[in-house]
Amino acid sequence: MRQHSMVAMILAGGRGSRLLELTNKVAKPAVYFGGKYRIIDFPLSNCANSDINIVGVLTQYESVLLNSYVTQDQRWGLDAKDSGIFVLPPREKSEGFGLYRGTADAITQNIDFLDQYDPEYVLILSGDHIYKMDYDKMLSDHKKNNADITIAVLEVPLKEASRFGIMNADETGRIVEFEEKPKQPKSNLASMGVYIFNWKLLRKMLVDDVKAEKSSHDFGKDIIPGALNSGKRLFTHRFKGYWKDVGTIDSLWEANMDLIYRGSELDLSDPAWKIYTEDITLPSQYIGRNATVKNAYINQGCIVDGHVENSVLFTSCVVEEGAKVIDSVLMPGAIVRKGALVQRVIVADEVEIKENAKVGKPGDGEIELIHRNVHA
Amino acid sequence: MCNALGIINYDDASAYVEGLQDYRPMPSVSFLGRYRLIDFALSNMTNSGIKHVQVYVKSKPRSVFEHLGTGRQYNINSKRGKLHLLSGEEPIHSEIYNHDITAFMQNMQFIEEAKYPYVVIAPSFMVTKIDFNDVMAAHMESGADVTVAYKTIDNAKEAFIGINTLTLDRDKRIVKFEKNQGKFKNRHVSLRMYIMRKNLFIDLVKLAQKTSSMYTLSDIIGDNLNTLNVVGYNHKGYVACINNLDQYFKANMELICRDKASELFDPKWPFHTRTNDSCPTQYSPLADVKFSTIANGCFIEGEVRNSVLGRGVIVKPGAVIENCIVLPGAFIGENAKLKYCIVDKNAKIMHVKELLGTPEDLIYVKRRDTL
């Protein structure tokens, strides 16, 4: 079998329970984002654009939709003979059912998958972040530093640093200390949950980790600190650009809003770094005679005859005459009937706001998720 | 499931979209922002369960090959199905010999080898939704030798010019083919869609070639109306016959209207095309768009009225676009005013203030042109 220098493994098993009803039936990586995408399109497209040919997707929570979604690997151009996306949910084994007990354990249980490809490097990714990143540049850094492990980091405002895993590095970029959500952060370099490991080393660490009784089998809690303590060469790779963990309704709304202004850091129109997704078979969007559309991000299949302002409309949304959609996100197939007012909310997919109904309120309070039909 | 070989036919001189076709053959002419004309004929075939489709390409095949690829996006199965892109195998010395019969003769082997008893033939320039299973069922029931799909229209003075009109007897048998010269309003017009046994099709092709080296498929069927039982199938849905620039413009414009568009677009009968992975369309605070069809990937800061915008069109502030078709990737610069224009792919309107056409006199801006 041809050797693939770097194989990517995307951790996509989490529920994302703070996304409330949006993740009742689907895992967080399958949640809709940005008018036509799902969150997992971002790491998958990044892999494809970084020339990574083999991608494993580790799923666990409510995985049926996610599994069937990512298996269609032609969507990301990963359907050539020597490439592919492989879904790796927990499986029954001779010693019992192998539920993934942590992020590291998920990889441990798929050592056999990685061994098939015998890569030199393994890229570990999270399936629930929005960003565009060239992993090949990170690999160059990794090789240049002669590193054992490279961790992508992002500068965050110091006052927010205590929400992240913080890397303290020397002037060469070598990591000297790792602190998970420190109360008094010493630096503002936050881990993005993107790691490159030398596969031989990671394989050994994972095999040892299984035997460690106290381990929670987690990259952030066990594997990375363990590697640091044993003197391995851990380096940072500085990432500059847009990166967001859309873990809550508020942050999901905010990240969608970031798309409305061209010139914002998250630009999905760059032909050199496209984000690929499901091929949608629908005609173009229709803007009607009575419509006013200002500051909006709208996908194909939408029918707009009302007022849309500061909003993101996913595939096949309908905004009828006299309806107003302001500061909101309408997920696929959402319908806003005549005279309805929708303000500062996320309307979940296929939800209908009936005639003259009102949802949400102006101001700067929390964003509401509308997941059931609303009557006037 | 149609037990038939699908054939998407050549277009003859009666169908020619001025300007647009200088760069691409009819099948790849852009339509309604995100489609190419062939998407309709090919989706109709695959939605009808036709597994093996031959597409005959007359000239400049690059764009057709690129667009269709293996046909996967049209649901053509990569193992059991086949999308066969065929062009003339031998040089043709004069354009007058470059017609469908020549192409069929040159590729006869592939027609003979196809393991289906029937053929379903359709052109690429008729935009419609048609289930060939219904046509096939009618063909079986009537026991006809050839079934010709037709539409009854009341605007034959303007539309379907140069296309055959049909004279039908009481049993829907076609007794006469006659070219539409635009003299009458109400006519039955041929959709150039035929169903017949494959063997009969092969015989007719060979007969046509023997009769005259300028004969087309519709000529030979017209010649044999007395000897063959040729029956009409009345197709009732929306049909646009895109056989010249005016009709191209008119069809794009009328399909902006929801009522018209819903006659063609049915969620249960999707028209497939090649995805371009464009992001959604962005409207700036300055955007002012009404009554228009907008494809993905556009960035709109100007005014758009009664227009069709293709993928990735950029409209700068102060620009006004009215009654226009703007093809993918075009750039409409600041303060440009466009009326009744067709702007071809990737053209740039930069320092021109006004391009004002009229419904009778459309302005065409060439591909990649910078004005």
Q: Could you outline the blueprint of secondary structure elements for this entry?
A:
The complex is a heterodimer of chains A (376) and B (371).
Chain A lengths: L5 E6 L20 E2 L3 E2 L2 H9 L4 E5 L5 H8 L12 E4 L4 E2 L2 E2 L5 H6 L2 H7 L3 E6 L2 E3 L3 H10 L4 E7 L9 E5 L5 E6 L8 E10 H13 L7 H11 L4 E6 L3 E3 L3 H9 L27 E3 L4 E7 L4 E2 L2 E7 L4 E2 L4 E3 L2 E2 L4 E2 L4 E3 L1 E3 L4 E2 L4 E2 L8 E3 L6
Parallel strand pairs in A: 1-4, 1-8, 4-5, 10-14, 16-18, 17-19, 18-20, 19-21, 19-22, 20-23, 21-24, 22-25, 23-26, 24-27, 25-28
Antiparallel strand pairs in A: 2-3, 6-7, 8-13, 9-15, 10-13, 11-12
Chain B lengths: L3 E6 L20 E2 L3 E2 L1 H10 L4 E5 L5 H7 L13 E5 L13 H7 L1 H6 L4 E6 L2 E3 L3 H11 L3 E8 L10 E5 L5 E6 L7 E11 H14 L5 H7 L6 E5 L4 E3 L3 H10 L3 H7 L16 E3 L4 E3 L1 E3 L4 E2 L2 E3 L2 E2 L4 E2 L4 E3 L2 E2 L4 E2 L4 E3 L1 E3 L4 E2 L4 E3 L6 E3 L6
Parallel strand pairs in B: 1-4, 1-6, 4-5, 8-12, 14-17, 15-18, 16-19, 17-20, 18-21, 19-22, 20-23, 21-24, 22-25, 23-26, 24-27, 25-28
Antiparallel strand pairs in B: 2-3, 6-11, 7-13, 8-11, 9-10
Helix pairs in contact in B: 3-6, 6-7
